[in-house]
Each structure stands twice: as C-alpha cells, then as structure tokens.
Design goal:
It is a single chain. The protein has eight helices and 24 strands. The protein has two domains: 8-12 and 379-480, Immunoglobulin-like (Sandwich), CATH 2.60.40; 29-373, Alpha-Beta Barrel (TIM Barrel), CATH 3.20.20. By secondary structure, the protein is of the alpha/beta class. The strands form six sheets. It has an eight-stranded parallel beta sheet with strand order 5-14-13-12-11-10-9-6. Strand 7 (111-117) and strand 8 form a beta hairpin.
Amino acid sequence: MKHRCSTSLLLALTLPAAPLLGAAARPLALHPDNPHYFLFRGRPTVLVTSAEHYGAVLNRDFDYVKYLDALAKDDLNLTRTFVGSYVEPSGAFNISRNTLAPAPGRFICPWARSDTPGYANGGNKFDLTKWDDAYFQRLADFVKQAGKRGVVVEVNLFCPFYEETQWKLSPQNAVNNVNGIGTVARTNVYTLDRHGGLLAVHDALTRKVVAELNAFDNVYYEICNEPYFGGVTLEWQHRIAEVIAATESSLPNRHLISRNVANGSAKIDPPHPVISIFNFHYAYPPDAVAMNYGLNKVIGDNETGFRGTNDLPYRAEAWHFMLAGGGLYNNLDYSFTVGHEDGTFVYPATQPGGGNPAFRRQIGALKRFIEDFDFLRMKLLPNAATSAAGFSTRVLVEPGRACAVYVSRSLDDKKGGGAVADQTVVVALDLPAGAYQLEWLNPVTGLSVKPPKVKHVGGILRLDSPPFRDDVALKVVRTGK
C-alpha cells in the first residue's frame, strides 16, 4: 500500500498489572485502583458528553427530560448545570438561543421572590434569606431524571461576572434583592474581605444545595466556573470547598468536589486536599493532563468552544484529551435550546462553538472505544510517539496487553474547516512476541474494521491504516502467545 505520510509510535509493553479490586456501589468517586478515573455504580467510569449550556434547571422553559433522553440516546453520561447564582442576558457572548439566558419572567433560582417588584429581567426582586421550594424540587427532579439515565450532574455553584450585563441580572446584586446586600463591584463578589455581606449568602447557598442533593449518587460539585476571571480569589474557592466538605461530614454521603483551574493548561500547586477533580477549559493540546498527572486525581476538560462550528476541532480535542489520560470531557453543545431540547437546533455560523446530533454520536463512539479497554490499567507514554509533519498522535497503553492510538491531522487553523484528501499512516509499535487483534476505527462514523490477527515475533510491528480524511483510531490487543 502507498502512503502519503507516516507516523512512528514506539511503545515498551511489559507484563500486566495485578487484578482489579472489587468496589461497592456508592456516590461517584475516584476509582481506588486508578484515581485518574471514576468509580460509578460499581464500575470503572469515564465521563464523556456533549451537553447544553448550563441552563437546564434555572430556565423554566427548558424541557430537561427531553434533553436527558437525547444524551442517553448517544450513550453520553455527563451534564453540567449552573444553580442560578449567575444568569446571562440574551445575546451574551454572541450565543443564539442561549439556555443560560431565560426569557423575561422565566428565571428560577434558589432564592425566593419577594413581594417587591423590580427584578431586572421580569418579576419581583429576590429575598436572599428565603429559599424557593419550587426551584429545589426542579433541581432534585433534574438530578433524579439524570440518574435514571446513568447521567452524572456537575452542579456548578458559582460563576464570576464577566461584564456588568451579567452582574445587573444577578440576585446577589443589591438592586435585585430586598436585603440591601451586594452593593459591591462585580469583581469583589467572590472574595473573603470585600464581598459586602455576600459571603454568608454563599455559605448558606452551598450548604442548602449540598444538603438537598446528598441522597443522589450521580452528583459532584464544581466550586466556580472560570474563577480566573472576575476577581474570584483562590482563598474564597478553598472556603467553599471546605463548606461542602463540612456540610457533608454530618450527612450520609460524600461527593466529589471540582475546581476549574484554567483555560488551556496550568500547573496545580498546591492542591487543596478536599478537591478531587481538576477541570480545564479549551484544553487542546491536552498539556494539562501530563502537567498534573502526578496528583493522582481526575483531570477534566469540561468546556470547549471558540474554534468555529465544525466537528473536527472538538472531536480531536476530545480524543487527544482522553487518550492523554484525562477522565472527563464535556463539549459545549449549542444545538440544545428551548424548543429543541433534543439537540436539533441549527445555530448560525457566528455561534462560539459547535455540537449537533452527528457530533454526539462521534463522542459516544469515543466513550465506547475507551470502555472497550481495561482503561484502569492504562497509562500515557508521553515520549513514545512521534508524528510525521501535519499529524498529531496520542497513545495509551496497558503494559503487556493493549494499546490505544489516535492520529489526527494537525489543526493549524484551529478551526479545522478546510477539506483534505484521503490519506494513510503507518503506525509502528514496539511489541513483545504474541498474537494480536487489530481494530481500526473511523471516529466520524463509529464504524470499524478488523484485519486478520497478526502473529508477531517481537520488536517493531508496522501497521498500515485504512484511508481516512481527518483522523483515525487503532485498538491493539494481545490475544495469545
């Protein structure tokens, strides 16, 4: 077979590790045998999804049951929701039909409405000393419905106010509540010393949400979305993490806590001991995983976008991140809107991200690809792969047993919009002697081909890929001597 380019991957495979330990069912946890991944309902788990823009609960018009059915249909198992301490105006960030921007009068949040008119987006102002029972019923039912479908809910407690337009809509702003609390700049809200009385509100909200959801096994808590904007301090984040942990100390269940660290990548030093998940946004290339792998915690990529509306950049981001050893991936999917909760909204080309039914099937194929491996035993060999010009390669190996390979064309334009001709690669693996089953996967269609088993004498094994347009994946499993 003729090849336009080639990739050489050299892997040193040794004897397999000890058998896995049994695990009892409990709320989502780090897996005790490999804490880079999860244990959920007694099974090793990766969380992979393409999910809506965080307004499923706070937007009264959003049919979350229909939405969760759409996730389950494509075998996706994660969603991210904001609790309502933050809400967006229509048109924010150039998002069309934004679920995080409810229509006037359709916003619901943890705090009850007062008898005083004047909330900026319709209805009465809020009373920060009283809870809205209807909200917590909706939140609990959302989590319950997600759990029935095997979907984990990332409950995001807080978010900075990027611009005055968001701060003007927040119940925490003094103009929107009857308590005289929140007469501060939007950049001082999430601090320990300049909050204008809001710190007690934050503590109370955290305790209330955590107590209401304690019985559910399909929840973890993220302290704050993108705290590296808007004046959010690390000390405040650690306080909220401690409030979560302290609240659950007297409750039956303990849930994982997540910190959103950075856009792209950053070294986490030092980590707070109660935090178990470290999430990044726009994490391509996936340097954040290798930089923080030694923490023995889950490293996640829980928001994507701003690289056009084509599928390839986000599909490649997902594959590269998960095959770098990541344990969680959430594509921000703008095809979920009010009236299109099945994810069929056709957004304009100006949308700041992607997502669509075909893309969700692609991401489901990635999840199943990983689940076909004994991924708890797998590890990244960061110096084992070299790519020919124009290609990026990622490899995970189970020593002595299996390897997972992903090759994509490099996304120099960052949007992946240009069409290219079919191409092939040569994958060269340094394998011990034995019989091997190969399987090439098309990440776009989810279809695979299995060549005849290969009897290998040991050393370098060169494998010809089938023709592909943008990317290809390979599963290699040793089946005998």
